[in-house]
Amino acid sequence: MMTEVQRLHAGFLAPDPAARPMMRWWWFGPDVVREDLLRDLDDMAAAGIGGVECSFVYPMGAESDSFGSPSFLENLGFAAAAAVDRGLRFDLTLGSGWPYGGPHIDETTASRRLHWEREEVLMTAQRLRIPQTWPSDEFIAGYIGEGTRWETPDSYIQLEVEDGELIIPAGRGPRVILLAISRLSGQTLKRASKGAEGWVLDHMNPAAARSHIAAVAEPLVAAAGVERIGTVFCDSLEVFNADYSASVPAEFAARRGYDPLPLLWQLTLTDGTGAAFQADYHRTLTELVEANFIQVFGGWARSRGLEFRIQCYGQPPVTISSYRHADAFEGEGWGWDAITACRWASSAGQLYGKTVVSSETWTWNHSPSFRSTPLDLLGEAQDHLLMGINQFVGHGWPTSPRPQPDTAGEAAELGRVFYASAALDSRNAWWDVAPELWKTLHRLCWLMRQGRRLSQVGIYLPARDISTGFTAADRVDLYKESRLHIGDELPHAIRTAGLDFDLFDDDALAVLDPATFPLVVLPHARDLPGPTRDWLHRVEQSGGVVLDLGGTADLGTVVRDPAVVPEQMPGSVQVPVWIHSVPSGKDGVQLGNEAVAVTTRDVGGIRVHFVANTGSETAEFSLDLQGSDLQGAQLGAEPGNQVLERWDPASAEVSEIRRIYRSARLSLEAYESTVLITHGDLSRLPSAGASEIPEPDHRAVERTQSIEGWLVRFEDQAQSCPVELPHQWEQDPERRLFSGTATYSAELTIPALAQRVTLDLGPALAHELEDPEGAGLMEASFSAKVLPPVGTIARVVLDGVHRGFLWKTPYRLDLTDWVSPGQTHQLQLVVSTVTSHRLAADSGIPRLVAESQQAYGTRFGIQTLDLALADVASGLLGKPSLRIT
Questions:
Q1: What is d(CA 216, CA 297) in angstroms, rounded to the nearest whole number?
Q2: What is the three-class DSSP state of 263?
Q3: Of 869, 795, 874, which is closest to residue 839 (Cα–Cα)?
Q4: For 599-622, how does the pLDDT look when each residue is reduced to its tens digit (9 = 90+)?
Q5: N or C: which end of the chain has fewer CB within 10 A?
């Protein structure tokens, strides 16, 4: 019978297909050809991608089918059936572009915002006709206050209305009329397909949700076939300034217990006055989005036997617990030591018991398109894993024809790309290594679904306080304002210590045990609801520590510096991991650990630690593995009765098993990661009673042997030519726009006494851009900040036999089993680069963009194609050597 550790390793070796990465599959137009759809699905299945999220966006060309047409729906059904036939999951976006909306949404169901008009009036009593600037404007209330438009009144009183006129009493000096008007937000669908154009719907109006379900969701689901669909999807709520709906006054009065109209003018204040009303108002908006959008779509999906997946952040102001009304939770954005949308989603998953939390991954990765390397993708994916994400939905895969070369023999055009990188399809020149990349991530996602993530710190989300800043920020986005309110120092301090955290809000307290977090932080919280204060007192009664960060909550221990928060962990709590610096050996200098991160899961008493170096330089550090749970119970009977195993994410090999007493010292190269397993099963040790793996033979000597006499042959050449290394293709004018493969070859003579032989391409060197924006990287762009020894991947062929790929740190491959001491072997490094060279030279994309804009207007802005080659380096960029033991 398998032990629990053996079972866990067996799953790691052959993980459940459900954990495979997926791809957002963009249909442009929607103009698709079935042969292209089949090619895409076949390529995905062959590479190890687990499924698609079908997404319908703007036309890219002059001709297109129409969204919702019979032919479009037939193609959708064809694609869904073909995906399922290939064992791929098929998810469906319930609309075109984003947010939800379209031609079925009219002025009664479109998103609305509060608009304010100010005018001075005379002191005399008078009646003023209520003005209407736009035909769809709806008057809400009028107010009058003493002052001018420049000397703003301190307060207002509500005016009476009669027969469409404002009744203005006599005054004693300058006065200002303030009108509250409900106005259409004016937002139409972003990136809409042909035939999907229209207003964005009102997320606080259930009639709008029902209209969209009838006009869009039902036909899409019927066409795809409910039995073929994994989840139905809603992207992030990006309804700008959506802070009103016709039902708000009545709903506010029913939910808050008082009439909002006499106080509505307080929403214009930015000085802190009126905070209580502002908090009540925005809380009402949150509840209306939950009841009239998320619950409506979630209930409809469940009635059809489907799951509703949502990115639950943005505008209108949803909070973390708003996720609870959906079935599947998703985030986006990298930043393992910050408050990100991924952390927002993974916290909701922890609070509401979701085993799987997904992310929209690789949006803008190494922009523009086709500059992403497998190392870039791995580095960002590891960042998401560290935040509690365990399902990747790649952004994304453009469905596109593959144009043939023209009659003059010129290279084929690339075809279509999405306006926002990355383009993660089989057009990438490095695609041969894609199965290894996706398998590595598949394996890690499966492992990070086992058991439960251990989180020692709870960060309270003071939504009432944060929402009072919406007016000054000119947005009602609780997620983005929360990130600014909490700041970066607190999450950074927690994560770089080796601890983990989750966000929680007032609604979560209904399901959150006060003993969940040994340490709770209140970041600049003032307006704590009574039930929340009671819950926090119960945290202290259960032995937890409550920290008042900023000293404004009047509860718990006051701290001013976020950096000291980890030090406040109760002494009785034995946390799974602490990260420590270690001496460098040179004058006792401590090596930093700011880039080292860990996330830990408890799997029936087995601890699974995913550890990653998120930085561009090698990190040496020590992990203090306490070997106890959060209540201090020892996992092993005695110190030293703990076993440490190290598992390789790429191969699933167990590279080390040994007994540990407290800590483990590690060294990880740039963007390298590992899996550490700690448990008390001593039978896993290499031999009965052994304390650790056998000591190495200290008589062994390691030396480096250079490799000389290199030749290179590009795929368009018949003969190999001598080459000096390093060799960067872009430095040759004839190869500046070459995207493809070149084979480097050399002879290896193995020393007679060699016991172990390792091919080493060299280190990845830290490479920080002075001007990232000038190189095409947006703020949200992730790229590995290194110059690797190969640009981009190398397939290692020894004596004519493929032996492996080198595409990530460390760029080394053990050749011992395939070489013989004293013999000479033939080595080939088949190097493939990125496809951005073809993007830079492509004339088809600008033409397609121009045709689309001529036929359909400006629905998108394509990336800066002129930066496609900025900071791109291809070829064999280091000097490979052999490491001989």
A1: 12
A2: helix
A3: 869
A4: 999 999 999 999 999 999 999 998
A5: N
Run of H or E residues at 438: helix 434-447
Given the structure tokens 């059936």, which residue do they identify?
A: 81
Question: What phi and psi, each to the nearest 5 degrees, are found at residue 202?
Answer: -85, 110
- Token pair, residue 568, equals 């406040």
- Please, are residues 217 and 232 in contact by the beta-carbon 8 Å criterion? yes
* pTM exceeds 0.90 for this model: yes
Sign for the pseudo-dihedral over CA of 508, 514, 516, 519: positive
- Taking only the tens place, the pLDDT of each residue in 430-450 is 999 999 999 999 999 999 999
Place of tokens 């899409």: 220
Confidence label for 689 from pLDDT (cuts 50, 70 and 90): very low
What one-letter code names the amino acid at 422?
A: A
Q: Which amino acid is at 880?
A: P
Tracing tokens 């790229």 back to the chain, one arrives at 783
Structure tokens at 548: 């008042």
CA distance 104 to 199: 8
As a whole number of angstroms, the distance between CA 71 and CA 30 comes to 10
Q: How many CA atoms lie within 13 A of 675 on its CB side?
A: 28
Q: What is the mean pLDDT of residues 345-359?
A: 98
Q: What is the DSSP string of 603-648?
A: ETTEEEEEEEE-SSS-EEEEEEE--B-TT--BSSSSTT-EEEEEE-
SS3 content of the chain, % helix, strand, coil (to 5): 30, 30, 45
Q: Are 474 and 241 in contact (CB under 8 A)?
A: yes
User: DSSP strand E in 334-473: where?
Assistant: 357-361, 391-398, 452-453, 457-460
pLDDT digits (tens, 9 = 90+) for 362-383: 999 999 999 999 999 999 999 9
Amino acid identity at 599: T
CA 93, distance to chain mean position in Å, is 18
pLDDT score at 588: 44
- Please report, for the chain, how many H helices and E strands are present, in that order: 18, 48
The C-alpha atoms of residue 370 and residue 416 are separated, in whole angstroms, by 12
Cβ-contact 661, 642 below 8 angstroms: yes
Q: CB–CB of 614/671 below 8 Å?
A: yes
Q: What does the alpha-carbon distance between residue 103 and residue 602 come to, in Å, rounded to a whole number?
A: 49
Give ∠ CA 863-868-869 in degrees, rounded to 5: 165
Nearest alpha carbon to residue 284 among 157, 534, 470: 470
As a whole number of angstroms, the distance between CA 356 and CA 503 comes to 17
- Can the peptide bond before residue 627 be classed as cis, meaning omega within 30 degrees of 0? no
Give which of 114, 99, 167 is closest to 315, Cα–Cα: 99
CA distance 259 to 115: 20
100 DSSP assignment: S
Which residues 6+ apart lie within 8 Å of 35 measured at CB? none
Distance of alpha carbon 544 from alpha carbon 569, whole angstroms:
9
> Which whole-number Å values give the CA distances from 129 to 343, 600, 821, in the listed order?
50, 65, 98
E strand or H helix at 37: helix 34-47
